[in-house]
Design a protein that fits this description.
By secondary structure, the protein is mostly beta strands. The chain is 0% helix and 68% strand. Strand 3 and strand 4 form a beta hairpin. It starts with a strand and ends with a strand.
C-alpha cells in the first residue's frame, strides 16, 4: 500500500509469510530523506544467508533505517532483536537479552549477543562485511557435560571450561581459532 501526502511518499507492506512487516517514508525534497521501520517475526536467516547447512537461525525484533537516498553512504539501519534462536545438531541456544545490530554501507556490526543453552553461556560480538568475510569473537563459559554427545567415547564428562574463540573468513566455511581453558575436568573411558 502507498500514499502521497504533504510532500511525502509513504509505503507499507509485509512479506507473504508475514515474517516482515514494514513501513517506509520518503520526503520528496532534493536530498530525498528516507526513514523506514520494520517488525520482524520469526525470520529464518538460513533462507537469506549462506550459513552452514546444519545451522538454523530464527530472529524476531524491529529495525529502523534512515538517511538520504541520493547519498547512499548516509544510509544506516539499527536493529534490535528481542529473540534470537540458534539450532544445530538437535540443540538450541537463545538470547538472554535484546541484541543491537547496526547495518552500514559496508557491514553488519553486532554488539554483545548474550545467549544461553546447552549448559553454556555465550557472548558474540564483531562484524560481518557484506563481502561475506566474517570477523566475530565468541566468549563461552560452562560445563563440559554440555558437550557429552560430541565425545561418545568419554563417559561422565564434567568440569568447568572457558573459551575465547575467533570466527573468521567466509560464513559458509569459516576458520575457527582461539583458546579453551578446562579446569578440574573428569571423564571415564570404559573401553580402557
Amino acid at each position: 500500500d502507498g500514499s502521497i501526502q504533504d510532500g511525502s511518499l509513504t509505503i507499507a507492506g509485509k512479506t507473504r509469510d508475514d515474517e516482515i512487516a514494514c513501513q517506509a517514508q520518503i520526503t520528496l525534497k532534493q536530498e530525498a530523506p528516507f526513514t523506514a521501520m520494520a517488525q520482524i517475526a520469526g525470520l529464518k536467516l538460513e533462507h537469506h544467508l549462506a550459513l552452514p547447512s546444519d545451522l538454523f537461525v530464527t530472529v524476531s525484533g524491529e529495525a529502523h533505517a534512515g538517511g538520504e537516498l541520493l547519498a547512499p553512504d548516509t544510509l544506516v539501519a539499527d536493529m534490535q532483536l528481542h529473540e534470537v534462536q540458534l539450532r544445530f545438531d538437535e540443540s538450541q541456544i537463545r538470547n538472554t537479552r535484546p541484541v543491537q545490530l547496526r547495518y552500514t554501507q559496508k557491514s553488519v556490526e553486532i554488539e554483545d549477543l548474550v545467549m544461553k543453552g546447552l549448559g553454556t553461556d555465550v557472548i558474540l560480538r564483531g562484524h560481518i562485511p557484506f563481502n561475506g568475510m566474517a570477523d566475530l569473537r565468541a566468549t563461552l563459559a560452562g560445563d563440559l557435560a554440555a558437550f557429552q554427545r560430541f565425545a561418545p567415547y568419554a563417559h561422565e564428562l564434567r568440569g568447568p571450561f572457558e573459551a575465547d574463540l575467533w570466527l573468521q573468513g567466509m560464513l559458509k566455511a569459516p576458520t575457527l581459532s582461539g583458546e579453551v581453558v578446562v579446569r578440574q575436568a573428569t571423564f571415564t573411558l570404559p573401553s580402557l
